[in-house]
Queue: 3 jobs
Job 1
Amino acid sequence: MSFQAYLDNIKAKTGKTGDDFKKLAEKKKFLQNGELDPKVKAGEIVNWLKEEYELGHGHAMAIFAYFKGKRD
């Protein structure tokens, strides 16, 4: 599955884009000024996405990769 397919599936499930998740992550202090806080571990973000948005591990990791700058 391509990275874009992951993002498309996430949007279909949650109604949110990668940028929407970035805004939500900023409110939770996982990101600051659009950049991933280096003290935040992938597991924290994955757990948040699993709990609040019922994403699977692979889809949550795709959002984490999006936060790190992956776009394709």
Note: Helices lie at 3-14, 18-27, 42-53, 57-67.
Job 2
Amino acid sequence: MDHPGYSDDKAAVLARLRRIEGQVRGLTRMVEDDTYCIDVLTQVSATTRALEAVALKLLDEHLAHCVVDAARAGGPEAEAKVAEASAAIARLVRS
């Protein structure tokens, strides 16, 4: 494979990650400013959901491109890509 499955949406993924980075900096400021615990937890939850959305986008792109391409080719690479995707899904479910 020449490039990751998300290559076509790389700019959008990077923009989302930069927004999440800003959310994390905001969390740091909230703690530094002794913000009420529940307000900080609310923002932690929002940041977690944003990261999960990025993860799901990346997973979707991986399945649609990398796994599909490997499945078309068949053989051990196809089995390896499916196992790799299954492991990634398991990690996401556990997190």
Note: Helices lie at 10-32, 37-73, 75-94.
Job 3
Amino acid sequence: MIVILTISGALLATAAALLIFRVLTGPNSLDRLVAMDCILALTLCGIAVWAVYSRDTSIVPALVAFSLVGFISSVSIARFRVRDE
């Protein structure tokens, strides 16, 4: 199980690095918004992998709170986004 958790952590870190590149070089603000939302999802997955590794179930309410904050922030930014020129 340790090998699977290590591989999943490495894949999550690789995906996060690629998404950070997209945030820094995104052609417009909507691409950056999608990349930031994906980074939040990867963070949630990383916390879930850590919860499995540590066998700690007290992290689950934090996962729910982070996902709620991510949803609300994505919707509000998409709603009030100014068009790129």
Note: Residues 68 and 74 are 10 Å apart (CA to CA).
